[in-house]
Amino acid sequence: MTFIYLIASLFNKKLNKRQPIFVFSILPVFIFLQILSVLTVDKIQKIRSERIIVKIEKDKTVKGELPREITYPFGIEYIRTIDNENFEISYSRGFFGY
Fold it and tell me: pLDDT per residue over 34-53, tens digit each?
C-alpha cells in the first residue's frame, strides 16, 4: 500500500512524499534485523539441541532406553519414535524461521 502511495506521490505534487519514503527507508532495516535474529536464534537452538542430544544418549547408555517425555524450554521439542530406538529434536526459529 505504501509503495502505491509512493508511486502516486511522485506523479501528484499534492501528496505527501515524506511518509512513504520514511517507511521504505525503515523497511530494509527491519527485514535485515529479522533475518539476523533468525540466524542467531537458529545457532543458539542448534547448540542447545546438540547438548540435549548428548544428554539423551548418555541417559540411554546408563538406563538402556530413551526417556518417554522430556520438557525443554525455549521451543525445543523431544519426540521418541514408536520403536523406542530413535528420537527427534525439533525447535522453533522465530518470526521468519521455517
Answer: 889 888 988 988 898 899 88
Q: What is the pTM of this model?
A: 0.64
66 Cα distance to chain centroid? 27
- DSSP conformation class of 71: B
Cell output for 52: 540435549
Whose CA is closest to 96, among 46, 45, 26, 36?
36
The secondary structure of residue 15, as a DSSP letter, is: S
Q: Is 71 exposed, middle or buried (0-12, 13-18, 19+ CB in 10 A)?
A: exposed
Query: Cβ contacts of residue 86 below 8 Å, gap of 6+?
Result: 66, 80
